[in-house]
Structure formats: structure tokens, C-alpha cells
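Exercise 7.
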Amino acid sequence: MEKFTVLEGVAAPLKIVNVDTDKIIPKQYLKTIKRTGLGKGLFAELRYKDDGSENPSFVLNQPAYRKSKILVAGDNFGCGSSREHAPWALLDFGIRCVISTSFADIFYNNCFKNGILPITVSPEDLAKLFDDADRGANATLTVDLAQQEIRGPDGGTIKFDIDPFRKHCLLNGLDDIGLTMEKKSKIESFEKKAAGKRPWV
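Solution. The predicted structure, written as C-alpha cells, is:
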């Protein structure tokens, strides 16, 4: 998993509440178990018209936001079913951080397991971040995980809370497999001793 330290970039404002995982990545894209290639299906029902052409009014289709790394979203982001394809699609598009006032628990947990930082802020702070994001390419946000702060284009700072263990995992690029591999020498030692005691196994 790629490490998350400091992320700087244009933030896309998605001023919609209760965005569920089916809205993030519609069901027709769930046939794959690969984590790549899902970016094209991200918010497909909002990004594309019925004929497959782009919807120019959708934020990620606008020139300033096509390469956004940060998403500023409305309340209760990631609700609905527990599909892990939702964070996969965000990551494949290039989004490494989602900021909202609240997240669905399963989506929130899945983000950390896939290298995405979900940040919970107050409604007042979200309103300020929406204002910054509305400025498009003229304003960039900096998300500093080590310092646990979001720095705005005008020098303002918003602090955020995060579980220390999850912070450690993101800073070091450790998913569940990576955490297990940190104990590789102990695992190998145990297996060697076990094989000596029970060679028939």
C-alpha cells in the first residue's frame, strides 16, 4: 500500500449528502475483483449521460477538477452496501483523501485498508473547505497526516483527529498483509519450532 504522508492538490466539492456506495461505483462495475480499472466507473451515473457522453455539469468532468486528489463531500458519505469497490474506484481515479462531516462505518474502515484517508470535520469547517474547493485550480489544500491538519490556500488550518494505529498504518503504507509481514521473522521462527515438534504435520 502506498504511504500517505502529505497530500497537496485541488479539492473537488461534491455537495451531495448521503452518497451511497452504489452511487460511488454502480453495481455493473462489481464483476471484477481487481483494484485497477474502476476509476472509469467512479460516480458513473453522475459523470455520464445515458448515451455514454460526459455530463459537463458534474464536478469531476470540469477542467479544474479532473485530476483532483481530494474530495470534499456532504454528510454521511459512503453509506449503503459494504462494497470495497467504492474505495478502489476512488483510489484508481486518483483520490487519496475524502473529507466530510460523517462517514458510514464500513466505508470508513475500508478506506484505511486501501490507503485512503477519510477525515471527519465539523459542519463549520466543511463549509470553509467547500468555499476553498469552489475556487478550483486557484486554490489547493494540503493534508498533513503527521501533523493531523488541513492547510487551506489562505493560510488557515483545520486540525483533525485520527486513531493512532490507523495513522501509523497509513504513514507507513501498511495494509493487513503488510502488518502481517512485519512479524515475518516471528512467524518463521514459530513454524520452524512447530515443524521440529511435529514433523508429521
